[in-house]
Amino acid sequence: MLEKTLAILLAAILVSANPLVDRAAPMAVVYEACTVNNTVALTFDDGPYLYMTYISDLLTQNNAKGTFFVNGNNYNCIYNDDVVASLRYTFLAGHQIASHTWSHPHLKSLNVTRITREFELVDSALESILGIHTDFLRPPYGEYNALVREIAYKESKKLIIWDFDSGDSVGEAYRQSETDYDAKIAQNPKTLLALNHETEEDTAHYLVAYVINALQTAGYKLVTVAECLGLEPYASNTGTFGTRDDTWACPRR
Ligand SMILES: [Zn+2]
What does the record say about its membrane topology (predicted)? Predict the structure, then answer.
């Protein structure tokens, strides 16, 4: 009797799941963790803002690499002169630059046109400014649905989430973030994909140095998201920076 009930239940689950499994549109891969043992990817979201070069230098001085998921128009306009300079400086230091969408929206609330635009405006900016095409995208708030994944696939994106949140963007004091990192490290995870924010002054000035030391002391290698996944950092890299023209401006959306 129990077996029969289970069989019926299983059949019901399979039938209900099939429309999803059989969806015609392929979806972008979603990564929630690193795959290369003993690596940590420190990621910094929501810039470009004031602290990119400072964090870049901290990482470089400690033989570490990081990843910056940048917006086009959030805290700052990506085409501003000082922003272009800090993006290029950080990129040339070997840190990975990837997309965090144009305006940091809740992607699940947008239609196809808007989502596509959120992706393509940043792609276009990074192509002009750095000569790269990025295939790494972190959806704002870590939010996505089937439509977001379908469009991301069409745009050749991988979605990158995280498995550790420093809490720095939700009002957590940096001392608490340090304690959280310590507690995580004490669990001896094989890898770590950590969410931080370039836009937080305390992250830049206190947390990053502390965390680099704690992680390296524990024996981890601090690498880009691409390296922690065993992937190439860019879909293409021309090695040439573009020249400013009238298109280097920030539309509202
Ligand atoms: Zn964000």
Answer: Lipid-anchor; GPI-anchor
